[in-house]
Amino acid sequence: MSSSSSQPQTINISDLDLPQLADVKRQLEEEQQHLTGSFQQLKQAQSKFRVCLSNVEEIKPVNKGKTILVPLTNSLYVPGKLSDTEHVIVDVGTGYYVRMSRADATKHYKSKADFVTKNLETLQETVQKKQDNLNMVVNIMQSKIQAAASSSS
Question: Which InterPro entries does this UniProt record tie to the protein (predicted)?
Fold first, then answer.
C-alpha cells in the first residue's frame, strides 16, 4: 500500500469545467445553509443561558415569601411563593434538574454561555470561509462563462 493513496487529492478549482463548478457551488451553498442554521440555534441557546443567568441574579433574599411567576414552559407561568432564596433548580439537560446554590447556578450558566460564545466565534469563522470559497467559485464560473462567450463570438 502506498502512502499517497491515503493522502487527499488536491484539485485546482480553475481546472474544473462549468458543470463541475456548479456542483461545487451547490455543495458549498448547502454547507453554508446548514452552518447558518446551526449558528442560529447556537444564538438561541446563548440567549436562553443569558436569560437563565439573569433570572438567577434576580433572586434576592429580600424577595423571600413574595409571590412570583414560575415558568412551566416558555409561555406558561403560574404564581408561586419564593421560599428559598439561596437555592434554585437548574435544568442541566435531557430532562434532568439539579438543586444548586445561586452562586453555583450563576457559574453554571456563565460557563454554558461562554462555551456557546466560543463555538459561535468558531462557527462564524467557518461560515466566512465557506462564503469566501463560494465567492471564489462564482468568480471562476463567471470568468469561464465570459471566456466561452468571447471565444464563440
Answer: PFD_alpha_archaea, Prefoldin, Prefoldin_subunit_alpha
